Amino acid sequence: MRVIFWQDSLSPHQAAHIRGLLQLGVDVLWVAADKLSSERLALGWHTDAPREAVTVLAPSAKELTRLIDTRDAVHIFSGVYGTDACRYIGSCLARGSQVAVMSEAPDLAGMAGVIRRGMGWLHTMPYRSRLSFALAIGSDARKWFEGCAIPRDRIFDYGYFVEPGQHAVAQTRALPPIVFVGQCIPRKRLDLLLVALSRLTDWPWSLDVIGDGVKRREWMALAGRLGIGARVRWHGVLRNETATQRIASARLLVLTSAYDGWGAVINEALWFGVPVICSNHCGSRVLVREDRGQVFRSGSADDLVTALHSELSRDLDAARRKRIAGWTRANVSGGAAAKYLLEIVANPTSQHLAPWLI
User: Fold this and answer.
1) pLDDT tens-digit profile of 76-115?
2) Which of 95, 201, 211, 213 is deepest in the core (most CB within 10 A)?
3) Distance between CA atoms of 12 and 202, rounded to whole angstroms?
């Protein structure tokens, strides 16, 4: 079997399930216009494509024709419209190939969301009835695809997958920090976390902020005004390996986003047995169940305080970390995703349950 992934740029969140497919004997081609966008490089991202995968960067017109003419493959496109890769969906369908799309949900709030819904419906109209399946990345992507009028029985839950390391779960130390990883931009709502933590000063917490952005200075000043400046360490952008080490040694990861299509930092935290608090507007909130953390109502400082109090009141012993990490590595790994994807490819007319939802 051969699978061709079409994307605008290579993503570290795709490498794990591609590696999983390769380990199952699948031929994989990874087609992208660019290796990694400058914006993502500035965030400390990097992508090491699996050596066994054939990577085609900035394909020429001749290469594009050859790829489109590959009929004995499953073509999986990232996005439904607005990307360079999506321009070739119709051409692959015209060759009689099996074609699928994968996408997280865009931000559908407000008038901009209404426009995005209309654009999605309009742009998928020529091909949606001919798609083999659609991979919905995150809790809200299924509704997004349904809004594009893609048949419901062809929509399957999916995600992003990262495997930051196979070493043992990091052991807790005295008063490990809470960690926030993300851009300092309005959408990430770090200010909400600072306000919530300022109401929990009786607890011996500290906060590591990893990331930078236009709101950093404003939020640093906010921490000072709230009287918690001495408890917050601002690290800026760190190399991916360094950020991963910080996550692995944390007491708790918090993602307060007003919108996140997925939020792969949640995968990373759970991989190391670190519980998570996230808003109900994060796509990867589907992973935060049972003893793996808490989900709070987006924008609610009261809800966030309750979630923080609940987590800080619980022991994070080695046994709990081991349970969280064990579940994650069994159900949200690249290998687990690859097996699930192949089940869909083999029989897209049947219903398949994602392993992280069982």
Assistant:
1) 999 998 888 899 999 999 999 999 999 999 988 899 999 9
2) 211
3) 39
